[in-house]
Design a protein that fits this description.
Blueprint: H1 4-13, H2 22-36, H3 38-49, H4 71-95, E1 101-103, H5 105-118, H6 123-142, H7 145-152, H8 155-176, E2 180-183, E3 187-190, H9 196-213, H10 219-230, H11 259-263, H12 269-303, H13 315-332, E4 337-339, H14 343-348, H15 354-369, H16 371-374, H17 379-394, H18 405-421, H19 424-440, H20 450-465
Antiparallel strand pairs: 1-4, 2-3
């Protein structure tokens, strides 16, 4: 018998139409949150290295500051939670899609290490640049430019994006679980299989893989919980110094944008400053644009969330929600909000509507009051989920037409450059550069949409002017 609450949820989120139910959406939301929760601690720690702390320290000097002992770092944590919750709710109610909006680690790192450390902007000036890029996003979304870019992308390139993201997510999981480590001689190598964290990652991977193979509902979430529990006697799941209730300071980073300082940076006058920050804003915009597009297109293709034209469902609304959230992030005191790739974990667990996002948003807000509990789930427990998602998404590669070399080359570079450069945007950029090159020099220029030429030129310009 249907309850009144179920009828309301059905009306808002169209659960039957999307072939899902409340239980599946809740499980999907829980899976996504547990998979992305690590970012709530990682993001403020990266931001503090760029100077977002009460002492203005940068780099290694700021490493000792924590959420607990520094009001600005604590406020940065609060900003991440609140901005992610609001952005994710916008996606839930406006687009009715299960894509979580939160600060992407690639963009956070670019903000801290490039904008603040390398170029010397303060974090307040950096937030102003983030907001400008968000406003630019809103404009190009309202004019359908972002949507047109998606439609202009060839089918094989979209499939390659899905497969590339799969490899990229797997690499993140393998790295965070210690199975793959950096090696100065070979770039990457196996980790130490005698290390208890690595052992736990492998145990979790086996558990999750078996549950997935047996089609157990909520397999990823169950696997994460079981692995976390196994980690307690192994000493990996840390329960000491956990406070049931803790609330960080709020407000030190809210509305802290410094537009005046941004425009007068380095004393070059308004025109000089605009020219200086132009590539910063463009880079933020391009990376966010193609990180988000890659996640939207890639996960939609894998999960069947496509419309009658074979494109991602509610694409325009999803892109507009992303644009709104990006602008909001800067004003709330955190970096660019993007459609995070970890959303794929919840989608793989069955999430198909914005209801799962509501669950994630509630948990983001709850995290404000239980910040010390966020770190309980070890990376060894969430890493297997990312690896499994990679397995699911890599299946798109079988549909790519490798018999046509002009299609195969850009598809290959799209797939390979995502994990090899640790960036979804870089993979898409290289693929979009090679696609028109291959077609033009083989007499197939009619296969190329005019927008592809424009994007290839912009990416080449971006790599020349700002290679980092």
């Amino acid at each position: 018998m249907k309850t009144k609450e179920n009828n309301i949820l059905e009306k808002i989120f169209k659960l039957k139409e999307n072939k899902t139910d409340v239980k599946t959406e809740v499980l999907g939301g829980l899976t996504t949150f547990v998979t992305i929760a690590y970012a709530l601690l990682v993001v403020p720690n990266i931001l503090k290295l760029g100077g977002m702390n009460s002492l203005g320290l940068k780099g290694d000097e700021a490493a000792v500051l924590t959420i607990a002992n520094d009001p600005v770092v604590g406020s940065a944590f609060a900003s991440v939670c609140i901005a992610a919750a609001i952005g994710t709710l916008i996606m839930a109610f406006y687009a009715n899609m299960p894509f979580v909006l939160a600060p992407g680690l690639g963009l956070v790192s670019f903000f801290a290490f490039n904008i603040c450390l390398k170029l010397g902007y303060t974090w307040q000036q950096g937030l102003a640049a983030v907001s400008i890029s968000g406003i630019l996003f809103i404009i190009i979304t309202l004019t359908s430019i972002r949507e047109k870019i998606v439609y202009a992308m060839p089918h094989n390139l979209k499939l390659a994006i899905t497969a590339g993201i799969g490899l990229f997510i797997s690499l993140i999981g393998l790295k965070s679980g210690g199975i793959v480590v950096a090696n100065p001689a070979t770039l990457v190598a196996f980790g130490d299989f005698k290390n208890s964290s690595v052992i736990l990652t492998i145990v979790g991977l086996v558990i999750m893989a078996v549950l997935m193979a047996r089609n157990v509902k909520g397999a990823m979430l169950i696997g994460i919980i079981i692995t976390t529990i196994i980690g307690i006697p192994m000493g990996i799941t840390k329960l000491n110094d956990v406070h049931v209730f803790s609330l960080p300071p709020i407000g030190n980073t809210f509305l802290a944008l410094d537009f005046k300082g941004l425009l007068s940076h380095n004393g070059g006058g308004i025109l000089g400053a605009i020219l200086t920050i132009f590539m910063v804003v463009i880079t933020l915009s391009l990376v966010d644009l193609f990180d988000s597009l890659g996640t939207l297109v890639g996960t939609a293709q894998t999960s069947g969330m496509i419309d009658e034209n074979g494109e991602a469902k509610n694409l325009r609304k999803s892109l507009f929600a992303d644009a709104m959230a990006t602008t909001l992030g800067g004003f709330l005191g955190t970096t660019t909000l993007a459609t995070v790739v970890e959303s794929a974990a919840g989608i793989a667990a069955g999430a198909r509507t914005g209801l799962s996002n509501v669950v994630v948003s509630i948990l983001f807000i709850c995290s404000l009051f239980f910040s010390s509990l966020i770190g309980v789930v070890p990376s060894s427990a969430t890493a297997p989920a990312l690896i499994i998602v990679g397995v699911l998404m890599l299946s798109a590669v079988k549909e790519i037409d490798f018999s046509d070399f002009t299609e195969a080359v850009p598809a290959f570079f799209t797939i390979a450059m995502m994990p090899f450069t640790y960036s979804i945007a870089n993979g898409i950029a290289v693929g979009m550069i090679f696609y028109p090159l291959m077609k033009v020099f083989t007499g197939k220029r009619k296969d190329v949409h005019p927008i592809m030429y424009i994007m290839a030129f912009l990416f080449i310009l971006r790599f020349i002017l700002m290679p980092d």
